[in-house]
Structure formats: C-alpha cells, structure tokens
Write a structure and sequence with these properties.
By secondary structure, the chain is α/β, with parallel strands linked by helices. The chain has a single domain, classed as Alpha-Beta Barrel (TIM Barrel), CATH 3.20.20.70. The protein contains 9 helices and 13 strands. The strands form 3 sheets. It has an 8-stranded parallel barrel with strand order 1-2-3-4-5-6-9-12, surrounded by 5 helices. The two termini are about 15 Å apart. The relative contact order is 0.15.
Length: about 270
C-alpha cells in the first residue's frame, strides 16, 4: 500500500493486503444522517478489518434540475463531515468543483475528490495539489484510463505525489454507463492506487424527469468484478433510506445491505491477492 495511504489509515488496524473503502451518503443532508452512516459503516469496517474513509459531498454543484437539493451551506456541511470524522476517528473526503474551493475544503477533510466531469480542469487539479492533501481524481465518463496519466502528471508536477484515480464507467449512449475493467490495471500502471466507484458507474443520467436514474441491484456485480481485477479500493455511496435521499438515491446501496456485501468482497480479496 502507498505510504500516504498507510499514513491516512494510521489510526485503523487492518491487513495491508486488504482493499480500502470510501463510503457515505451522496450529500450532507443533516447531521443525524451523516452520524448514522459514519457510525454504522465504521463499525462494520472495524469488524472486517477494512480501512475506511468517510465520504459526503458538502455541496452538489452538478444537478440535473435547478430545483434539486444542493446542500445545507458550505461551512455548515463541511463542519458536519469533520465532526463525524473526528467522532469516529476516520479520515474523510469530499468533492470540490472550482479552484477557489480547494483551500476551504482542505481545512476540513483529508482527501479532495475531483468530480469525473472536471478531471481535465488544470486549475482545479493544481489548486487541489497545492493544498498538500491527497487528491482523488475520478476518471471522466468521456476519457480512457490511459489518458488519466495527464491528470496524475498535473498533480505531481505541482509537487504533490499523493494521487488516487477512481474508475466510474464511461458514457454509453445518452442514458447509461458501461464499465471497462481494463481501466483498472491500465490506471494502476500510472503508479497510483485505483478505486472503483460502484454506485456512480450504475447511474442512468439525462433522464427527462430531471432526476438521475440507476441500477443499484448491480452494485454487487460491479464491486466483485473490481476486486477480482485488482482495484485497491471501492467507493460506495450508501444511505439508510435511498428512496428518501436528497441526491443520487436511485443508485445508492441501502445501508442495511452493506455488511453482507463487504463480507463477500473480503473473501474474494483473499482469494486473488
């Protein structure tokens, strides 16, 4: 495991051959929701020896409809993420959308996530790199795994070697995604850890209803294949009631189904390492 990941998980006991998990609700809806998810997922991960990063977006900048929920307010939401991470002794992550957000968000989280549709934004990547935080870049739906070397180069040329790449599928027509698992070893060849986004890769975007659809029943399939093909980590958005979630409910995993899935995935991991 990369040294910066060992440092990130210094407060957690784990098998260094184990995959790590980035998980949480899509967006900060309330402090109660964040605390519920962080507590349950951290308890499961401690039991299974899975290093865990709590994830939640403090603001959703990329929404289909102008009436969609975007957040509680930047500082308020970031403070809730930080509070949950401190309470359960977890590293945390959130996504940023513009270069001026990098320094602000870096004051609250350990990893800055670059959204897939912004993976080519040079000023954003450099601003994130300049914070000194780990930078997790999601591969754009419109680019190949091979071309993500340029995102890695931009961050490293800014003096930051703490880079993660995340696969989240490629656009297939107007309203579907498809995952090419060749991208996992291809992106690992760039010399960085690679994560599989098991929930956004099942989105069905551009729905005329103004609400993104999804296929959460296939999360298990995506996750199992990712572990089998060498992913270093998994990204899973989860919620105690996805049907009532304020963002991406259609492709989130129900919180009650997470433990069973992680048990299966740890068995697959042991079989392939």
């Amino acid at each position: 495991m990369e040294k910066f990941l060992q440092d990130l998980f210094k407060d957690q006991t784990y098998d260094p051959q184990q995959f790590f998990l980035i998980a949480g609700p899509c967006v900060v809806e309330s402090e109660e929701n964040v605390m519920e998810v962080a507590e349950k997922v951290s308890t499961i991960c401690k039991k299974l020896g899975i290093p865990y990063v709590f994830k939640a977006s403090y603001r959703k900048a990329n929404r289909t409809s102008a009436t969609s929920f975007t957040g509680l307010g930047d500082k308020k939401a970031l403070s809730i993420i930080q509070k949950a991470a401190q309470k359960f002794s977890l590293p945390s992550t959130t996504d940023i959308h513009a270069h001026e957000e990098a320094a602000m968000a870096a004051g609250y989280v350990d990893i800055l996530q670059i959204p897939a549709f912004l993976c080519r934004q040079t000023d954003l990547l450099i601003a994130a790199a300049n914070t000194g935080k780990i930078v997790n870049v999601k591969k754009g739906q419109f680019v190949s795994g091979g071309s993500m070397k340029f995102a890695v180069e931009k961050i490293k040329m800014a003096g930051n070697n703490k880079v993660i790449l995340t696969e989240r599928g490629n656009s297939f027509g107007y309203q579907d995604m498809v995952v090419d698992y060749r991208n996992i070893p291809i992106m690992k060849a760039h010399g960085v850890p690679v994560v599989m986004d098991c929930t956004h890769s099942l989105q069905q975007p551009n729905q005329t209803s103004g609400i993104t659809g999804g296929n959460p029943e296939l999360i298990r399939t995506i996750a199992k294949a990712a572990i089998a093909t060498g992913a270093d980590g998994l990204f899973i958005e989860t919620h105690p009631n996805p049907g009532q979630a304020k963002s991406d409910g259609a492709n989130m995993l129900h919180l009650d189904k997470l433990e069973e899935l992680l048990v299966q995935l740890t068995k697959i991991r042991k079989a392939v390492v």
